[in-house]
Prior knowledge:
Blueprint: H1 2-28, E1 38-43, H2 50-57, H3 60-63, E2 67-72, H4 76-84, E3 90-93, H5 95-101, E4 108-113, E5 124-128, E6 144-147, H6 152-163, E7 172-175, H7 179-188, E8 193-197, H8 200-206, E9 210-214, E10 225-229, H9 230-235, H10 237-256, H11 262-267, H12 292-304, H13 314-317
Parallel strand pairs: 1-2, 1-3, 6-7, 6-8
Antiparallel strand pairs: 3-10, 4-10, 5-8, 5-9
Helix pairs in contact: 2-10
Amino acid sequence: MKTQKGETARMKRLLILFPLLALLLGACASPVPAEEVTIRLAVIPVIDTLPMFVAEAEGLYAKHGVKVELVPVASAPERDQLLQAGQADGTLNELLSVMFFNRETVQMQAVRYGHMASEGAGHFFLLASGQSGITDVEQLKGVEIGISQGTIIEYLTDRLLESEGFTSADIKYVAVPKIPDRMALLGSGELKAAVMPDPLGGLAVQQGAVILLDDSSYPLLGASVISFRKEFLDKHPAAVKAFLAAIEEAVTLINSDPARFSALLAEKKLVPPPLAGSYVIPKFPLKGVSSQDEWDDVLAWAKGKGLLQTDISYKDSVNPSFLP
């Protein structure tokens, strides 16, 4: 009997010790990979993508147990081709781009804001050429403004000018889709006005352009989003959640000490060389997704321009469930 009682007591002690040992080993172990998959992100060299590069440089993807490959692309069409071909899983784009992908079937979902304007830091700038003599937005009525048509830039410019009391009859555009061409024409005075993203707006000002409007008072108009192919989200939800956790940590690092990442900006060519030493990194938005109201306004604009003919579902296209 004594032997049985002793054995029973020993077993009880082991049952208590084993869970404690497992907890201690778990605390000391390296992060378990979210999934055995590598996320491939098509990345345009714009300031909006800085958190992705910071997460890479700071080892945050590994910390959160996810593998990420940043695939550089030169333009939005190249980015979209990779996504259509399944050669990229996600990207940084904007709501309008997500709508175009989803016009027939749901192919993309926005899972987080990428970047947007903030107080004192515009994301897009409506500029007048230094040679135009234009110094006030009222002088733009009937003047051709260089933009990329059918894009977030046209949407944002329409809304900014409407907020200043412009009617559709007052607003004139000329299509200059390539940003370097727009910069050159604005600098030479061949374009009297144009819209440029940050930080190229700052470079244009350095070259003599005048800022007439920016979106700092309307930050949601030009907000970019991080989005993924729906097929990838369905197959690898844990990997996407881990990726967004790494992005959230990267944003926190940037916002707490932006100057620390100035060299990375130059290395990844996210700012033009003339601005490399003087550009001030803006604040990045913390976790969140676009609202139904934001979606509806972009959709109404796109339908009004004839870019889309049918309604695109917000709930099928914007998904907050992956946020940390």
